[in-house]
């Protein structure tokens, strides 16, 4: 339960990082503005028959790219956590060498008695 809560909180932090810091930096590097605002307008905003404005239908691929980057950051951190936890686990102790079987012991006793 603690891991679930921590994972949700970490997801919120990475979302804020990607949306607030990473995407604007990438947009500045490529000189395109805020990358999360990228989109393709499928239909323009128009006035409906009842006089109300019908909003534009926009395919927001910029926010999708941000979600993919967010997922990759979370996956990388989770991979590193699992890898470090597995590395900290002790390797299993080697099995103790097996002693002689009952037949081998009886054969040794027999050989000693023959002398």
> Structural class, judged by helices and strands?
mainly alpha
Taken in chain order, the helices and strands follow as HEEEEHH
CATH architecture: Orthogonal Bundle
CATH class membership: Mainly Alpha
* CATH homologous superfamily (4th level) name: Large-conductance mechanosensitive channel, MscL, domain 1
Overall description:
With 115 residues, this protein is mainly α. It has one domain (2-88): Large-conductance mechanosensitive channel, MscL, domain 1 (Non-ribosomal Peptide Synthetase Peptidyl Carrier Protein, Chain A). Helices cover 60% and strands 10% of the residues. The protein is built from 3 helices and 4 strands. The chain has helices at 2-29, 61-88, 102-114, and strands spanning 40-43, 46-47, 53-54, 57-59. Strands 1-4 form a two-stranded antiparallel sheet. A two-stranded antiparallel sheet has the order 2-3. Helix 1 (2-29) crosses helix 2 (61-88). The longest helix is centred in the first third of the chain and has 28 residues, at 2-29. The termini are far apart. The mean pLDDT is 84.
